[in-house]
Request: fold
Amino acid sequence: MRLLKHAAAWGLSALLALGGACGASAAELRAPVRDSITVEKIDFQRPDFIRGMDVSSVISLENAGVTFKSESGGERDLFALLAENGVNYIRVRIWNDPRDSSGNGYGGGNCDVETAAQIGKRAAAYGMKLLADFHYSDFWADPAKQKAPKAWEHMTVAQKETALYRYTLDSLNTIYGDIDVSHKRTRSNGSRDMRQDDLLQQLTHSTGEGRETNIRGYYDYPWDCYLRYQGAQSSVPAANSGAIAVDGNVGPATVRRWQQVMGTSVDGIISGQQVPDGRTYARPAIDSSVVRYGAGGSDLIRAVQRRLGCGVDGLLGPATIKAIQAHYGLAQDASFGPATARALQAALNQGRF
Reply:
């Protein structure tokens, strides 16, 4: 802010000096300048417009005696002030263990999972949502630097994979509670210490089912929804077979083959799906790269619905997923999880639905 003020002051001085040299009056300098550049008005009142603020240091500041006051001078809770002034999202950075062996904090708010949970609960009390920003490090992480957490330093890649999974799952369980965690970001963006390239490769080539978490309970979904920790994509066919991989993950190749078998246009996309609101309608647990949201539904899903004799709306919702599961003789839990995907892939490899 100080730099901006100095820059603005320098710019104004230079402008006045230039104006004086050219004989321009003060009134002329203050006159608006017309330009062809226009900026469309932003509708800040849209319900999906994020007006956010990072308050990761608030608890550390309050513990140091810092207080917050309204414009009238009265002492107020910072979260109340933010909510009253239009903020609807609170971001909090999360470090694994931001303290040394003596328990001294590294600074920056010393934001661990427990601190994030406290901030999230206070935000929720005033109707604000939480963006959890995982660094997967004990302190600041960004594309230029990524130091592994102390507890992970001597782990193998396989051990780090397990630690990463358990830490993320346990953290979400700790933070969630009554909090609306609408977004989760990760900040481990390539590193030497973390060896993230090796970690991602390990995740991509993990065998069997991979790791998965049913997040139905986190968001009160009316059906199971799986968060999968496996990088294998069905866009990679089995070697030299011409078949799609039966890996339990519905990706572009599976959707394209499905479209071919059902006789619809082939683009590898399930289009026109209802935007998930995290409460009454959620995206099925399939690869996000194949889903497009909007009006109209999907021709592929309509063809499937006609084949199964269920309601035809083009939406891959709970009723349609249950009908697909019944078609394959599976448990009807309305979750398009790995078992349902594998049954579909096996059938498609035989040229049928």
